[in-house]
């Protein structure tokens, strides 16, 4: 085990049962978040998902997709990202608790930025509003009602989904990773991996979205692999702190 992760609990870790429980919860959710990326890949490999995805061009296509494969519709509009953010919420709180003795100000800044990012991302998400509109469209009694709902859905799709919340979340993770790197609670490898993985994801959001080029896909894949490693390192350390 790295030297940085053998610090006494009185110097760098939680000191009460509530803090230990938080670290255990945060470590568990970090490890659960590892499954999101493979789940995204596996779901995309199903032939029915691929066929349904290629047909979603117009707003009526989206409504049809939600009516026939509602989960695929939610997934295509970022539902798994929402699940990942929800899983990371306890993890970020646990990271703040563990890092508060290293640098409470920047650890708190990272936590605040993360939750602001979640709020912004959820506010701009089109997944559940489109699901609701599809149900209303299916139950509409007149052509006029269907036309209004189609126009609302088209406006929602044309507006697009803001990526500002995602950038805030990734930047927040860069901040807490920097505190990990400078502190004694987590290993230097954990801090470096978090900074690099989340930094590359920010580059993808700024430069390569939508990810269509070969270089963009390589950067996104590298960032995804680094994040999986980071989640594993963070989850393991938090579970260790929860047991001390």
Report what the structure shows.
By secondary structure, the chain is mainly α. The protein has one domain (3-55, 87-125, 161-243). It is 83% helix and 0% strand. The chain is built from twelve helices and no strands. The longest helix has 46 residues, at 79-124. It is elongated.
C-alpha end-to-end distance: 15 Å
Number of separate domains: 1
**Stretches with pLDDT under 50, minimum 5 residues:** 1-15
The sequence of SSEs as H and E is HHHHHHHHHHHH
Gross morphology:
elongated
List the SSEs and their pairings.
Blueprint: H1 9-12, H2 17-33, H3 36-45, H4 47-54, H5 59-68, H6 70-76, H7 79-124, H8 127-139, H9 143-159, H10 164-182, H11 188-208, H12 214-243
Structure summarized in a few sentences:
With 244 residues, the protein is an all-alpha fold. The chain has helices at residues 9-12, 17-33, 36-45, 47-54, 59-68, 70-76, 79-124, 127-139, 143-159, 164-182, 188-208, 214-243.
Entry keywords:
single chain, 244 residues, mainly alpha
